[in-house]
Design brief:
By secondary structure, the protein is of the alpha/beta class. The chain has 12 helices and 23 strands. The strands form 6 sheets. It has a 9-stranded mixed beta sheet with strand order 8-7-9-10-6-11-12-13-14, with helices on both faces. Strands 15-16-18-17 form a 4-stranded mixed beta sheet. Strands 2-1-3 form a 3-stranded antiparallel beta sheet, with no helix packed on it. Strand 1 and strand 2 form a beta hairpin.
Length: 460
């Protein structure tokens, strides 16, 4: 059957297709529809996955085997942690990050380990030459890699053909924005091309039971470039963050069908590649001074482990105009709420003060367990109170000034004891539920922000 070309209009934001142009897409965005020409499909529908070449029939849930998924050890402990224990066979993993942050470095290190342990690995690159990949591998791997194969190609049909001939145990696509399919006339990186190539890669992974790493670009705001549909297709979404002028790199999981979401892994960028950081809390707390004003330790629970952080705050008189509010690592709306509670419930007037808050280390913690530490750090710097580096504060602040309980408080206390802290200030509800308190650490339960302020004033 001959293929026919048709014209469709595709939304650049959500991937919605329409036979005619419309100003507003179904997702609510305006002027995001672009015209693309699409080739019709042959009788063999390549868009399907599952039951290919078989009779179409349903299966009883009770007849499906529930054996544990097979995982591949990447040889990198922090990467295994973020993935939930290793690469699941047949899974599709999307990794994104700013240019130069270390995406290709961690991928080539994982590829080298898997090639040495399990067999052939195919690295498909559409952005770099084979010589560039070779130079990076020589720098970070330091060994002979006979099972690592490099393919410089952007055409999906050619990639599929090479994959069928090579039969690798692991496939890497760098990057999805450079790939294109002959079935579409649009340019690489368009909504239709990314969606079509993503579907083809998903079919390769599921049919051949091999894990696939897909590298993706990010926009200036740090969001994943391209349509959201690619995030829905994949099994795991990883994001690599960090400052290029600093050595610390954080790998975070935002979606994981085979493990815990919001898990993080820490690495240090060196000349020999990325090195795992085992004790993340020590990295975030190093340099914390005892007796400094506006510095309070806090903790969050990311994925499967607690992390201890330092919150710093600074207030200074406003010279002109409105008072400035600047936050790094803390949502600005959350900071404004904490400032309002401090003013109404603790009597701290900051209307003529510029306020700066920073989570040391560049981490952007999720959740609200850092609220109390942010409030105490602001109060400390505004009133000139010296704080102890051995005191840790956790808790969510409500609009009434009360402290609300947080999750995993017992594990956080154990981590604080291991790191040498002597006192933990937390909500009374959490303190009352603690059954196993480590020796050498004092847990202070408080009901409100005002009570917590009295504790730090007494400690001074």
């Amino acid at each position: 059957m001959s293929k026919k070309t048709k014209t469709v209009f595709v939304c650049q934001e959500c991937g919605f297709e329409s036979p005619k142009w419309q100003g507003q897409c179904a997702c609510g965005q305006w002027n995001t529809m672009i015209e693309e020409k699409v080739n019709g499909h042959k009788e063999e529908d390549k868009r399907r996955r599952g039951n290919l070449g078989k009779n179409i029939k349903s299966i009883k849930l009770s007849e499906i085997s529930s054996s544990n998924e097979m995982r591949i050890n990447t040889g990198i402990g922090e990467l295994n942690r973020v993935l939930g224990g290793g690469l699941v066979k047949g899974s599709l993993i999307l990794i994104s990050g700013e240019p130069g942050i270390g995406k290709s470095t961690i991928i080539i290190q994982a590829a080298a380990e898997i090639a040495e342990r399990y067999g052939k690995v195919l690295y498909v690159t559409g952005e770099e030459s084979a010589e560039q990949i070779k130079m990076r591998a020589d720098r970070v791997c330091k060994r002979k890699l006979d099972n690592l194969f490099i393919l410089v190609e952007t055409n999906m049909e050619n990639i599929i053909q090479v994959q069928k001939e090579l039969k690798p145990v692991f496939l890497i696509i760098d990057s999805i924005q450079t790939m294109y399919s002959d079935n579409l006339e649009s340019a690489p990186g368009s909504v239709s091309q990314i969606r079509a190539c993503g579907n083809e890669l998903m079919k390769i992974g599921k049919e051949n039971d091999i894990p696939i790493f897909i590298v993706a670009h990010v926009t200036k705001s740090g969001d994943l470039a391209g349509p959201k549909v690619i995030e829905h297709l994949v099994d795991c979404v990883l994001n690599f963050t960090g400052e290029r002028n600093h050595e610390l790199r954080i790998l975070r999981s935002y979606k994981n069908r085979f493990g815990t979401t919001s898990e993080i892994g820490a690495f240090e960028m060196t000349e020999e590649g990325l090195t795992e950081i085992q004790n993340i809390s020590k990295i975030f707390l190093e340099g914390m001074e005892d007796g400094a004003e506006g510095s309070i330790a806090t903790a969050i629970y990311e994925g499967t482990r607690p992390l201890l952080l330092e919150v710093q705050a600074l207030t200074s008189p406003t010279n002109v105009g409105f008072a400035r509010r600047t936050a790094l690592g803390v949502e600005l709306s959350r900071l404004n709420m904490i400032l309002a509670v401090l003013e109404r419930k603790a009597g701290l007037s900051l209307i003529n003060q510029d306020v700066y808050v920073n989570i040391v280390g560049g981490l952007k913690p999720e959740g609200t367990s850092t609220d109390l530490a942010v409030a105490l750090a602001i109060y400390s710097t505004c009133k000139g109170l010296k704080s102890s580096s051995k005191v840790l504060a956790i808790g969510e602040i409500g609009l009434t000034g009360d402290l609300r309980s947080i999750q995993h408080s017992e594990k956080i206390v154990k981590e604080a004891s291991r790191m040498g802290f002597t006192e933990v200030i937390m909500p009374q509800k959490n303190a009352a539920r603690l059954t196993d308190i480590s020796d050498g650490i004092r847990v202070v339960g408080v009901n409100s922000l005002r009570d917590a302020i009295q504790i730090i004033r007494y400690n001074e």
